[in-house]
Design brief:
3 helices, about 110 residues, about 50% helix, alpha+beta
Length: about 110
């Protein structure tokens, strides 16, 4: 019985030694992703008249890999899009156009 108890303790310690660095690495990678530099681009969009239009534009924008978040409002006729710093903002207008709408203005809150 003592051998089984010691074996269980050894397995538990080994699991901790292996799992702890993996857990720390996972936390570190998540933290690094959060620290990714983003910039906000405001788009003025013509043609959105309802919630379905809003959803269509948001889906088009968030399908782009450089888009991390898109807040679209058909009432205000625009979108605030958080993208990876240095990304090509023309892709945003192209995605909106492909969805059936027109970007009439864009303003980047670019740092630097």
């Amino acid at each position: 019985m003592k051998i089984i108890g010691r074996l269980m303790v050894a397995v538990a310690l080994l699991s901790l030694v292996v799992a702890l660095p993996v857990g720390v690495a996972t936390f570190y990678n998540t933290t690094a992703a959060v620290a990714e530099e983003l910039e906000t681009v405001h788009l003025d969009i013509d043609g959105m008249v309802c919630g379905a239009c809003q959803t269509k534009v948001k889906t088009a924008l968030t399908s782009l890999p450089e888009v991390k978040e898109a807040n679209v409002s058909w009432e205000s006729g625009g979108a605030d899009v958080k993208v990876t710093k240095g990304s090509d903002h023309k892709k945003l207008a192209a995605a909106v156009k492909k969805a059936g709408f027109k970007v009439t203005g864009a303003k980047c809150e670019c740092a630097g």
